[in-house]
């Protein structure tokens, strides 16, 4: 995985949320959480796995809605932040944080009702292997996001500390086919890249977000979107 050492550092974990989801980044946090909720639907009493759970933004949110959720990550420091969030929210009994490798998930086939990953596939060195594992352990649903190779992210990708893997639609469709998944829906968003929103105050970001959303609904905006949210269903397995 790209940036593996950087991602596991204590100081990165401690500042992760404040650097990415303060100021205009609050809009990103809100949109990503909405995307997860829309994709997974009602989660009460469902078994859910989050790949690359990080500081537990989504893990805790779903536990608060009644999910029995496992958050898997490679970073102990990130999961320490997640456990503290779970403690403050009073949902420790609904969450298990587990350190592990997303390419070799320690679960049997069809173990979870839904499996999802956010902010993960842009770092993936072997996306086919990761997606195949997500499909293997899910009974019903797989959800993930990608950063897109026709977006403004291309222009500043080289400035990022670990770069990003960018995807085209054709590549994602091939990955889904190889994993035995059927595309159930895709949503494109954020013509303006995430880095732009993190640099401006939240009050100012709202106006840009409105314009971004309006343009994003056009055919050109769809092609220039920075991020895509992919919802897929698991097909019947052969004996």
UniProtKB/TrEMBL annotation:
Keywords: Methyltransferase, Transferase. GO terms for molecular function: methyltransferase activity. It holds the Pfam family Methyltransf_11. Its EC number is 2.1.1.-. SUPFAM superfamilies: S-adenosyl-L-methionine-dependent methyltransferases. It is an enzyme of class 2 (transferase). One of its GO terms (biological process) is methylation. InterPro entries: Methyltransf_11, SAM-dependent_MTases_sf. The keyword Ribosomal protein does not apply. Gene3D superfamilies: Vaccinia Virus protein VP39 (3.40.50.150). Residues 49-139 form the Methyltransferase type domain. PANTHER family: METHYLTRANSFERASE. This is Class I SAM-dependent methyltransferase. The lineage of its organism: Archaea, Methanobacteriati, Methanobacteriota, Stenosarchaea group, Halobacteria.
């Amino acid at each position: 995985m790209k940036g593996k050492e950087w991602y596991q550092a204590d100081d990165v974990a401690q500042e992760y949320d404040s650097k990415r989801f303060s100021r205009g980044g609050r809009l990103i946090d809100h949109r990503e959480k909405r995307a997860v909720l829309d994709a997974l639907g009602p989660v009460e009493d469902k078994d859910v796995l989050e790949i690359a759970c990080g500081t537990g933004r989504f893990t805790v949110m779903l536990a608060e809605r009644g999910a029995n959720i496992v958050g898997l990550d490679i970073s102990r420091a990130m999961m320490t932040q997640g456990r503290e969030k779970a403690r403050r929210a009073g949902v420790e009994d609904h969450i298990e944080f587990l350190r592990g490798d997303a390419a070799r998930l320690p679960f049997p086939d069809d173990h979870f009702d839904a499996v999802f990953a956010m902010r993960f596939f842009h770092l993936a060195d072997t996306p086919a292997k990761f997606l195949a594992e997500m499909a293997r352990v899910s009974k019903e649903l797989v959800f993930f996001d990608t950063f897109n190779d026709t977006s403004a992210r291309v222009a500043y990708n080289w400035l990022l500390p670990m770069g990003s893997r960018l995807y085209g639609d054709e590549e994602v469709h091939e990955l889904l086919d190889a994993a035995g998944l059927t595309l159930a829906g895709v949503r494109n968003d954020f013509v303006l890249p995430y880095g732009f929103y993190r640099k401006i105050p939240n009050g100012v970001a709202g106006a840009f977000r409105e314009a971004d959303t309006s343009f994003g609904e056009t055919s050109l905006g769809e092609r220039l979107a920075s991020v895509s949210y992919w919802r897929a269903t698991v097909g019947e397995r052969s004996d």
